[in-house]
Structure formats: structure tokens, C-alpha cells
Design a protein that fits this description.
This protein is of the alpha/beta class and 185 residues long. The protein has helices spanning 16-25, 55-63, 82-89, 100-109, 123-133, 138-153, 167-183, and strands spanning 5-9, 29-31, 35-36, 51-52, 67-73, 76-81, 93-97, 114-119, 160-163. The strands form 2 sheets. A 5-stranded parallel beta sheet has the order 2-7-1-8-9, sandwiched between helices. Strands 4-3-6-5 form a 4-stranded mixed beta sheet. A hairpin with a 2-residue loop joins β5 (67-73) and β6. The mean pLDDT is 93. It binds guanosine-5'-monophosphate. Guanosine-5'-monophosphate (5GP) is lined by residues 34, 38, 69, 71, 73, 78-80, 97-99, 101-102. Guanosine-5'-monophosphate is lined by residues 34, 38, 69, 71, 73, 78-80, 97-99, 101-102.
Length: 185
């Protein structure tokens, strides 16, 4: 059985972070740490949340072929460092929590990667949750909804789509998908 590259994507607010934490706490998985040019948010730390870098350094690394994938998202670069992920992959399955454009690049580079889209039970509910949060302007919410539609429009290119209706069920379903992919690898 080979170690797997597992790519999880899904629109913002769908509960990806919670699902990833559940998978990590059950053991047997490592999490990829991405590079980004966005500024750290409160509580985020270097090398744990992200490797924070400037655009020049990021672009240099692109030209050196240092990323397994990268994309520009809301004005910032995000990318998966090749050496970091390949090193982790020697010892365990590795989870990448990245957006769709990057995920599809991973699939092209590594067709054996397992792509799982996490979808909301209904889009309307996710939108009203975003609106109720009240922390963002109407414009920002519109941007997020557009992005959500875009992300979900790519789900047919993923190996699996898991609807996060019930957290425990979604985690169980993802574990089953991973186990059967491993059994067949
Ligand atoms: P945030 O800025 O909220 O941490 O992340 C914004 C988006 O970038 C999320 O959808 C997240 O999944 C995605 N993302 C994080 N790291 C990477 C990466 O290495 N590559 C790509 N393509 N997307 C990423």
C-alpha cells in the first residue's frame, strides 16, 4: 500500500477545517503546509498555518519549479511546496486543503492523487450563514458566493463529492473513501 496524496476542497464555510482536524486527530495523516503571500491572520504562525512569504520569493520558487501546484486567489498566491509534501509522503498519507484550480493541477501532475470535494447540503443555507455572520460587506459576500458556484461547478472533475450534512457521517464517508483507495493502490 502506497501513501496517498489526499486533496480536500470545498467552498468557504462548508466545514473543511473541522473535517481536516478530525482526520488529523485520528492519526495516520500529515497535513501539507502551503506557502502564501497573504499576511498572517491573528493566531496564525509561521510553518504551522502557512509559510508566509513575499511575492518576489514566491515567484522565484515558481520559476524554479518548487511547487506541486499554485494559484492566485483573491489577490494572493497560494502554493504547495513540492519538497515539503514529498518528504511527508515518505512516512504517511498527506492531506492538502486547497482550492479547485490547484487541486486540478495536482491531479494532472499526480493522477493517483485522491480528490474529494466537500459540498454543503444546500447552497442557500451556506449563503444565509455567510450573511448572518455579519462580518463581511455585501460585496465580499457576493464575491464568496460567486466563488462557491465556481468551486462546486468543478466537482465532476473530482474523484468523490461528500456532502457535509452531518459532520460525523461526512468524516466516516471520507475515511471509507481513503481506506478503499489505499486498499486498491
Ligand atoms: P485562506 O486565505 O482563507 O487561508 O485560504 C483561502 C483559500 O486558499 C482556501 O480555499 C484554501 O483552501 C486555499 N489554499 C490554501 N493553501 C493553498 C495552496 O497551497 N494552494 C492552493 N491552490 N490553494 C490553497
Amino acid at each position: 500500500m502506497k501513501n496517498l496524496l489526499i486533496v480536500l476542497s470545498g467552498p468557504s464555510g462548508v466545514g473543511k477545517g473541522t473535517i481536516v482536524n478530525r482526520l488529523l486527530s485520528s492519526g495516520g495523516f500529515s497535513l501539507s503546509v502551503s506557502c502564501t503571500t497573504r499576511a498572517p491572520r491573528e493566531g496564525e504562525s509561521e510553518g504551522v498555518s502557512y509559510f508566509f512569504t513575499d511575492r518576489q520569493t514566491f515567484e522565484k520558487r515558481i520559476s524554479e519549479g518548487g511547487f506541486l501546484e499554485y494559484s492566485e486567489h483573491f489577490g494572493n498566491y497560494y502554493g504547495t511546496p513540492k519538497d515539503f509534501v514529498y518528504e511527508k509522503l515518505k512516512y504517511s498519507d498527506v492531506i492538502l486543503e486547497i482550492e479547485v484550480d490547484g487541486a486540478l493541477q495536482v491531479k494532472r501532475a499526480r493522477p493517483e492523487a485522491l480528490l474529494i470535494m466537500i459540498a454543503p447540503p444546500n447552497e442557500g443555507e451556506l449563503i444565509s450563514r455567510l450573511e448572518k455572520r455579519g462580518s463581511e460587506s455585501k460585496e465580499k459576500i457576493r464575491e464568496r458566493v460567486k466563488r462557491m458556484d465556481y468551486e462546486l461547478s468543478k466537482k465532476n472533475l473530482y474523484d468523490y463529492t461528500v456532502v457535509n450534512d452531518d459532520l460525523e457521517e461526512a468524516v466516516k464517508e471520507i475515511r471509507n473513501i481513503i481506506n478503499s483507495a489505499k486498499a486498491n493502490s
